[in-house]
Amino acid sequence: MMFFSKSPWPPTILLFLFILNIILVSSAKTTSSTSKIGQGYSLISIEEAPNGGLIGHLHLNKKTNIYGPDIPHLQLFVKHETEDRLRVHITDAEKQRWEVPYDLLPREKPPKSALHKSVAGETGEIPFLSEKSSAGSELVFSYVSNPFSFAVKRKSNGETLFDSSSENSDPFSNLVFKDQYIEISTKLPKDASLYGLGENTQPHGIKLHPNDPYTIYTADQSAINLNMDLYGSHPVYMDLRNVGGQVSSHGVLLLNSNGMDVIYRGNSLTYKIIGGVLDFYFFAGGASPLSVVDQYTQLVGRPAPMPYWALGFHQCRWGYKNVSVTEAVVENYRKAKIPLDVIWNDDDHMDAAKDFTLDPVNFPRPKLLAFLEKVHSRGMKYIVLTDPGIGVNESYGVFKRGMADDVFIKYEGEPFLAQVWPGPVYFPDFLNPKTVSWWTDEIRRFRDLVPIDGLWIDMNEPSNFCSGKCKIVKNRPCPGDPGWECCLDCTNITTTRWDDPPYKINVSGVHAALGFKTIATSATHYNGVLEYDAHSLYGFSHAIATHKAFMALEEKRPFILTRSTFVGSGHYAAHWTGDNKGTWENLKYSISTMLNFGIFGVPMVGSDICGFYPAPTEELCNRWIELGAFYPFSRDHANFYSPSQELYVWDSVAKSARNALGMRYKLLPYLYTLNYEAHISGAPIARPVFFSFPNFTESYGLSTQFLLGSSVMVSPVLRKKATKVKALFPPGTWYNLFDMTQTVIGRGQYATLDAPLHVINVHVYQNTILPMQQGGLTSREARTTPFSLVVTFPSGASKGDAKGKLYLDDDELPEMKLGNGYSTYIDFYATVNEKTVKVWSDVQDGKYALQKGWTIEKVTVLGLDGIGESLAVDIDGMPVSDMSSAEFSASDLYHLEKLEGDTKKKGMMVEVKGLELPLGKKFSMSWKMGI
């Protein structure tokens, strides 16, 4: 929550920054046109390291003064860490430099080696010095000694994935390595499709767009700002290529927390970084983009498992001013029969916006506890917001204990003073182990006060309403009115090279100062770490500390929602995309941002449904809940100054919500299984269409549709007054989940679908078995209903097969895993061949499902040529003799062409109802197809 801080600058400052931007851009153009920044390095030695890698030494070719002096000697470290992952690490050979802390993001430390003066060969190609070490590796490292450059190639076909060489005609330099300016580039084929490099709102869609700015530095700039560094720092991209029909994908991570500009020109990509080291990880990927995310999350951490209820619908608003208002929201959802699992309070519950407190008037503890007892009795959950800024107040216990434990970030030896909602605040230093212990204790104290079910950590870029060195002004109210205006007495800090570095990255799209509206970059963390280096790690370290706190306090699966993220944040928390706007454009942009975070290893993601501010129109809110019902994280959230926009406010929106969320709650078993797959392999819950259809090049830039898992496609309306939607269908048969008799034969072209106000098109692909339940008003209620299976074959096919899977567990357990007695995993299979249909299951650890009494009540098979007869069923290999309760029914399927006058039958939907198949036991059922 950060209303009006999206553009919190007075017009005079904006004008000054705009003029400064023009001057800096003009200066940069002059510099680039006259000469390159550096002359590169020479590789003077290379040898095998004790840990199986390679160590090389680089010597500067020629000194330059642009952006400061060059570092004369560099160490190169190269290692194949797995068969699919190659690391290239370059740093100062003589002095330790800042790196992402190894305890924060665990990984192998490069060795140190003495400088060598022996000369390396002019060129080399080194899978490794010993053949044994290179066996099985898909990536080959090669180099040119002078000027030094390196390339990473694919062993199987020789394809170059990364090439840092620079020709005279190239607009980029050879390797440049200065204390506060590092530059390195790679050449790219023009037909490569790139994705990632965030967080930003990309108006051109999910594919990186040449010459759009990609600045990576965490900032409290709302999601309405296009092509600008936002809340998260993710210097990773996926490269998808299709050469002669041969598809390949790979990933590149530059693990560096310093601010950077990334310049993508279409045929090259250049990093300009203001500190740290070059720590590249190359992921070989493969034909499937899923393999890239798998390999990436294997390094940075698998996504956190989410509790089942977190996949339900959430409602929040900044402005639920007391317990009665919050309670009325819950009751109104119930009256409107709209599903709701989680009710949230923004900072309204706090006493004067102070973390871990309750407003004694509006949120008195006895009344709040009585409300939560009712909420919890229904299986619903309650979550509140906290901000990292701790109010400077001697009567505030959280502050006093923090001061006693010395947990705050320092400036010139004293806690750095900033301002957020409570007024003057200090920021906890989550790089300090003592801070983590203090934070854990504060969460414990608050949970003893209020039984919250998760925690929302906001404003953790971190956001500051002031800039520079500040002091409290006596007799001046702080916070004032409005609360986001700076009420401290502040002076700019530009005296250090950390606050005013030689190279200015494009912060906030206007080359703003690094410390503008955040912590001064010359402030210090634990052990003297500079904010300059650690700035973009703040939200990451905040999420880790919060996760550790919940795990330490209760052996229960935590749910944490964070605004600011970094590489690896998905291992600890979910993310929402921050302050968006209630406009049709923002509705569309939300899809690309969601899909990017799946690539970043943060699959539990969504945007504020209906927009955070200002008031959405009724029509827009209809369309937004239809889309938002299929975000992995589905939450309506609004601003204090906007009118109410809960889904029951408009009758028409309530109808759309019942329809779309009704389908979501039926799909919860599928979504929860995707949650499990994300946890074990990194696979995004919501994915670009090309993830399942990598050969379908028409989908490479598709940003208006997406997949849930491998085979459920969502095609929302994104335009005002539209009653139809053009949707791109990859080749194959697609069945409408809301009316399974309606079929689309995908031919790789756009099809026009009916989409009246209350309708969203959701289709399931052929060869799929989709586990579903009957839904409910809460996820707990939905979990008690019988299961059904939807089996899809290609329409009219005489032969076909289909597969599906289902994971279920006790969602309070910290981990999602099999073999603990509290989880069940099932593979489903189906075939049609020679007029015989067969559906069966293979069960692992069926005990849990049996204890829950779950059964399969119905099987629906789509695409058959005829109705069924002679049903045979066995359970755990034993025939079931009495099938009198089971019955067949059939309906004709109609293709989309029916809407254009073709009423010819196109196959059948056959349902077998009245089944009582125990979910925890293997079953097999078959029947003959009649005419």
From TrEMBL:
Domain Glycoside hydrolase family 31 TIM barrel: 303-674
Domain Glycosyl hydrolase family 31 C-terminal positions: 682-770
Signal peptide: 1-28
Entry's Gene Ontology molecular function annotations: carbohydrate binding; hydrolase activity, hydrolyzing O-glycosyl compounds
Biological-process GO terms, alphabetical: carbohydrate metabolic process
Domain Glycoside hydrolase family 31 N-terminal positions: 83-259
Keyword terms of this UniProt record: Glycoprotein, Glycosidase, Hydrolase, Signal
PANTHER family hit by this protein: ALPHA-GLUCOSIDASE, ALPHA-XYLOSIDASE 1-RELATED
Similarity section: Belongs to the glycosyl hydrolase 31 family.
Protein known as: Galactose mutarotase N-terminal barrel domain-containing protein
